[in-house]
Amino acid sequence: MCELLGMSANVPTDICFSFAGLSRRGGETGPHVDGWGIVFYEEGGVREFKDYMPSHGSKLSQFLSDYPIKSHIVISHIRQANVGGVGLENTHPFQRELWGQAWSYAHNGQVPAALDLANTRFSAIGSTDSERIFCWLMDSLAARFDAAPDPQVWADYLSGLCESINKLGVFNLLLTNGNALFCFCSTKLCWITRRAPFGVAQLSDKDLSIDFAEVTTDNDIVTMIATQALTNNEVWHTMAHGECRLFVAGESVWECHTRAVLHASAASQADGA
Amino acid sequence: MCELLGMSANVPTDICFSFAGLSRRGGETGPHVDGWGIVFYEEGGVREFKDYMPSHGSKLSQFLSDYPIKSHIVISHIRQANVGGVGLENTHPFQRELWGQAWSYAHNGQVPAALDLANTRFSAIGSTDSERIFCWLMDSLAARFDAAPDPQVWADYLSGLCESINKLGVFNLLLTNGNALFCFCSTKLCWITRRAPFGVAQLSDKDLSIDFAEVTTDNDIVTMIATQALTNNEVWHTMAHGECRLFVAGESVWECHTRAVLHASAASQADGA
């Protein structure tokens, strides 16, 4: 399995603190040693960083833990390979352009049957089930809408697609077009919104704490989404099986609950996640 | 104008030496202060690094100058903005997926009329003429071929497209699908192939030299392509107006000479490049 990390904020915010915790799970406090990636949305643009090395001990991940990139949406992923070998082409997040927007996506889980999905306009570069699903989602969005609809509209359509994929395996995902961050919980995903009055947060994976009151203003709203809570002194919301949420500028603006029909093998996989 | 740098090699090779020279042109020895980017092809995958800051003095470019990423194809670009503001969305190289391949492209020059090009399947995310042309090239390739043809076949088709764009302005470009590196010279591009016996090279932009004999084997073949020669003690081949070349594994495997019809304003722009 893998671990996901996402951020949605109403002001450009750096993710160094949370990334320092997540990256330790890639080889130090967790077994996700098969590469990692992170994508930052900054104003109108996007940039990503990827490595096929474990995030713990990677010079690039160390650089990013110390180099504050301020963005309003972030998606990150650390990988424990299942389907597809270790290599950059199989490293999340994956990215495609649709309607002049840069869409990014990262997946936690396994959906081996997805390798049978037919892709039309978008094709996988690597060999993971995850990227095949992403291409199928993008194909479906492109076929359904001629131009970019409002986020709630594509989120609503996407929730149905996610429900159908979720029947085939374990499918926790983060997906964004740079305006809104969409989350689908198959088995394991949680989130927290931080706003004034801010307090001190303590990482679960590292002896590191931060007083957010010192680095924020009263207007800041920042939501973090993760496979497992990254801090041990805050209350994170645990998402239900089949729950979708859409975050814009740090706020949860839309949610829905799909039928949480777990695939026969999903429950057992989830236990081992 | 901007500056381009490309590499094609038959073995995974790092570009730290050349990048150290190029990055100084972004604010130190040259005026290209409006961002920079570099894309590395490594085995089946690709990763890119971008910044909207000048490459000279950028912590990220300093990191890459010291961090050897070994790859077989590289494209890099440092930007002096003309069309489109300074921002990640307008920073080269641009990237799109076609036929399950990651295509990357960087452009030096100006083709303002390209903003009138109609895009179909691929749309620009930023506001540059460069990205609009890239999308038009990818649209054209997708319409012409159902699946990836041999590199010489798409290069031949692409040369005609480049000729038509070149009539509208200044259009020096590097483009790759990860297998082959295509170059088109509108006004200014040069290249050098290094092979055994290797010697010492001295950067033009920095007091730095390297003895390639110490870091290569006798079988290595490495071609560098650049807007201006990066070293001052080697002979670089100056490309002619309208000349195209295709490099695979460090070797020039195909070339053609399109009609070098310079746009009225191109000659004067070229002088100032």
Automatic annotation (TrEMBL), chains A, B:
Question: What SUPFAM superfamilies is this protein classified in?
Answer: N-terminal nucleophile aminohydrolases (Ntn hydrolases) (SSF56235)
Domain Glutamine amidotransferase type-2 span(s) in chain numbering: 2-273
Keywords annotated in UniProt? Glutamine amidotransferase, Glycosyltransferase, Transferase
TM segments? none
Q: Does the keyword Iron apply?
A: no
Q: Which domain of life is it from?
A: Bacteria
Q: What InterPro entries does the record point to?
A: EgtC-like, GATase_2_dom, Ntn_hydrolases_N
Can you name one GO molecular function term for this protein? glycosyltransferase activity
Which EC number(s) does the record attach to this protein?
Answer: 2.4.2.-
What class does this enzyme belong to in the EC scheme? transferase
| Pfam families to which the protein is assigned, alphabetical | GATase_4
PANTHER family per UniProt? GLUTAMINE AMIDOTRANSFERASE (PTHR42824), GLUTAMINE AMIDOTRANSFERASE YAFJ-RELATED (PTHR42824:SF1)
* Record-given protein name: Class II glutamine amidotransferase
